[in-house]
Design goal:
single chain, alpha+beta, Nucleotide Exchange Factor Grpe, Chain A, domain 2, 3-stranded antiparallel beta sheet, 3-stranded mixed beta sheet, 6 strands, elongated
Length: about 150
């Protein structure tokens, strides 16, 4: 009889330990799922912010173009300061001009609008027709260029 009680206690203890293991395993799975969910939502939020920033930058680029044209026509110091301030703010937000002049044509960064015979190696950017910009590592607008040919 006592042996039977001991066997029952052992069986009950094993069952309890198995339940604890199963619950611990389930808890770990829920924790891992939650951590994955948290990371995924953080990435989605970050992507949404980048997308909103990119849309804003795209809307502002024509204003930058107008500033640059105005600066070419007039030597207005106030206009220069305003342009510098605007560029400084945009650069802090991750906007960078794509350097193209005298560089090898890169279809990921440049858009060739014209070709011109030149003494330079073929495929070298001879002139920037419209500046291109990157926001962080994404091209917002390709630099429109004139490229050398033989």
């Amino acid at each position: 009889m006592e042996k039977q009680k001991n066997n029952q206690k052992k069986a009950k203890k094993q069952e309890t330990e198995q339940n604890i293991e199963e619950l611990t395993s389930a808890l770990k799975q829920v924790q891992a799922d939650f951590e994955n969910y948290r990371k995924r939502t953080e990435k989605e939020q970050e992507k949404l912010c980048r997308s909103a920033s990119k849309e804003l930058i795209i809307d502002i680029l024509p204003v930058l173009d107008s500033f640059e044209l105005a600066l070419k026509d007039k030597q207005d110091k106030g206009l220069e300061m305003l342009y510098s301030q605007l560029m400084s703010i945009l650069e802090k937000k991750g906007l960078k001009q794509i350097e193209a002049l005298d560089k090898k044509f890169d279809p990921y960064l440049h858009e060739a609008l014209l070709q011109e015979k030149s003494e330079k190696e073929e495929g070298i950017v001879l002139e920037e027709l419209q500046k291109g910009y990157m926001l962080n590592d994404d091209v917002v607008r390709h630099t429109k260029v004139k490229v050398s040919k033989k």
